[in-house]
Amino acid sequence: MTADTMTADIMTANTAAGTAERACPRLTEALRAIPGVRSVDVRNGALWADAPLLDVEAMAAAMAALGIRLGTVTAIPHPDSAESTVIYHYIDEHRIINVKTCTRNGALASLAPRVRAASWAEREIRDLFAVEFPGHPNPVPLIRPEGIDTATLREAMCRPATVARKPSSPLASPPAPPPARS
Hints:
Structural class: alpha+beta
Mean pLDDT: 83
CATH superfamily: NADH:ubiquinone oxidoreductase Nqo5 subunit
Helix content: 25-40%
Oligomer: single chain
Low-confidence stretches: 1-17
């Protein structure tokens, strides 16, 4: 990495952080105050908080105090470990706030006892990615069939996708030459 590239990266990060400050200073300050939040920036018109060691219960309390509701929760499994990236997507009148964290030992505290909207999303993430949500009031599988272990679906979700070659349609083939006349 050259000095120019490093300077450009630092300026970009500072600009993004500055943009977050200018766009919504109160919200940016509140996000930074949540234990585990490392940075807050604006990307594609949404606020993104990077929080590798997020205190999810403190996040839920902070968002509730701000009157911001949880829209959904998504996850991305790490194929080389038992961990997953979990993103909490919050919505208020004017913006989307995404808080990205990582599981620790395959688990994150459940928000479902405090935030009803988290219940189904946590159950789905548990079924698909084997993420445990200790404290969930109803950890019954949501989409996983009886008898199938959570690790089975996680392995399938982490496998690289293969694309089968589709047979071509006879309509897509060039037309056959007309028969020779005799």
